[in-house]
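I am writing to request your help with a piece of structural work I have in hand. Here, with my thanks, is the record as I have it:
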Amino acid sequence: MQELDKYAYQPVQGEVFDYVDTQQSVHPQDDGIVELVHAILRRWYIVVFCAILVGGGGAVAVWRFMPEKFNTKGSVMVSLVVAPIMYDTKTGVGNYDTFKNTQAGVMTSDLILNRVADEVKDKELVFFNQQESLLQVMRNMVVNGAIQVIPERGTEFLHIQMSTEVPSDAEKLINAFLRSYEAVVKTDEIDSINDRLSRLEVQRRTLEEQMRRQKAKIRERVDEYGTEQLTPRQEIALKQVATLKQEQVSIGVRRMLMEARVMTMEDQLKDELTLSDITDQVQLRVESDPVIQSLRQDIRRYEQLIRDGQATMIDTNPEMQRRKQILSELQRDLEKQRQEATTRHEQSALADARKKRQGELDSLKAELNQIIAYEEKIREQLKEHDDSTIQIGRTQLDIDDLREQYESSRQIFNEITRRIDELNIERDRKPRISIHSWARSVSAESKKKKLMVAAPFGGLGMGLALAFLLAKLDRRVHAPDDVARRIGVRIIGTTTGPEHVSPKLLGQQLMDDYQTIRANLGLLDGNGNTKLLVVTSPGMGDGKSTLSLNLATSFARSGRKTLLIDGDLRKPDIAIMLNLPGTLRGIQDYLFGMDLEKTIYRMEGLDLSVMASDARNSQDALELLSIPETPERIRRLRDSFDYIIIDTPPVLAFSDAMVWAKMADGVILTSYIGHTSKVEMKEALKRLHEIKANIIGTVINNVKVAHSYRRYGYGYGYGYSEKEKARRKPHATKRGNKALLIGAGSEENGVNQQT
């Protein structure tokens, strides 16, 4: 604080600090490359060290200790296509590169190595001694790369090469490889042809026996019907089957109709006959009765006499009355006779009706039985013809299948016979693999020079790779641009690190830094409602306590009534930084209900009050902040002060900071160049967003002057040297500082330090 007092307060005049959201100005692709280049450049000393150590040392080591060597190489030619003797067509290899790679493996197989060992065991080559196994030594040489078989891309050559100091022995060894490989390849080709011939001969004999059995089966099937073509006979049988099917359908319809009639008649017999069913028959029999007919004639005669007498006699005439009386008696006799006849004829009519129905039913059943017998006969004939037709068809199919099998076997037999003849002729064709050139040696001195030239570049590449790896592993913030690009949060301002500025200019630079932060806060708080500010950080050592103290001092110097609260109840630092009495515990007392004036400490010469804290009851810090009356008591302070700055614990360390953030009007997040992790900062922002805290921005501490928010003001008023004046262009303007950057400044007694 004493250091800050040396510099008079200078208000920011005529300067507006504009900002835009960093998300709108981020170009991830370009910024990622630029950031990576900057990260590697920050580790330039690693690149230079590796280039000098590896490049220089490697070049000297190659020059002094690398003996003169010779490259010895022999070649075989693996033909892509081989022209047959009998035909103009050429046979090739499906995947030529794979075939060449396979042959390279064959050249270093144990089969070749055994042959080479047998050939060179008496030549006393320098690569072997009598105590060691030649086969094992050559295996080790192949594994270690002393003997290499390399397929040359784009050609038909397969090279076997060595790099040794004794070229003559290397040539003998490589020539032994070439001879052994050629002998093995020729033997393999002959064995392959012989094996194929033997297999083909076995297949041909098998096919001959198979064809003989197939012909015998065909003859057996043909003898059954006397012909091989059974299709016409099958067509006739199909027509007969169709005719029988039609007849079967017709008789089936007749049978169903007759069955329906029989069922109807049976149902009628089951029902008892009633008088109403035979009324007509009874009436007919009654009317035809002789007595009834005689009475009817008498009645008609007397009716005629009465009609005739009415013309000559009156009704009272005795004759007329006698006639009428006789007519009445006749009518009564007629009615009586009719009733007697009806009773007599009803019984006989019922018996006759039952007998008639039974006769009709028996007749229908007899006819139905005839139809059923006929239908059964039709069905038997149909089954017989159908089975015959199916058997003819199956026999025809069997003959066709056997004929196809025979033809297929005959074609395969002919193809195998032709292939056997070809293989017998192709034994003498040109081999696919042949020796192209025997071993020859050339000096490898040019390789030594290339290694000397490549050593510095290799060292440079190793340095760049190491710097790149360290840059990828480093998650710390190194410049304000890292925060703007990677985290996407506004930067309110920056504070300059003490090692980045001259000691005599440090105080003024810090004053300017905090004036810039204060001015930007004023721009962000357009309506003046942001009075209660929480200053926090992702982790320990990010400079939040120093920022809280210096920001409160800056507000107080600007004439604002300011209160600084030490909200870190677990590790309070404000009282220690200001050398205040150790017994002060204002925030605890205030939250427990003590009067405000008794809990604050007023700084001399400044309109600044401090509500300190101590470490007592630090375990109950969260419980104290969680008291229901705490938010209301903190908000009540807004009526007594223009600005209230609260220093809180780190967001990721304790939950206290989250409680303070919910009470505050805004949150300022601090970070420290070279210390704060980007991952931790993103996590802290995430947690603050989850509780919907108003994050104003961030202040970045320990930045270089070139990265400072007021870097163009540094040195202003102190003059320039003559050379600087000559280099300085007139009317230099700010570049790339249009975004309002958010960072955390940390200073104690005018000097930035981690807290």
In short: The two ends are 16 Å apart (CA to CA). The chain has 22 helices and 14 strands. The longest strand covers residues 433-443.
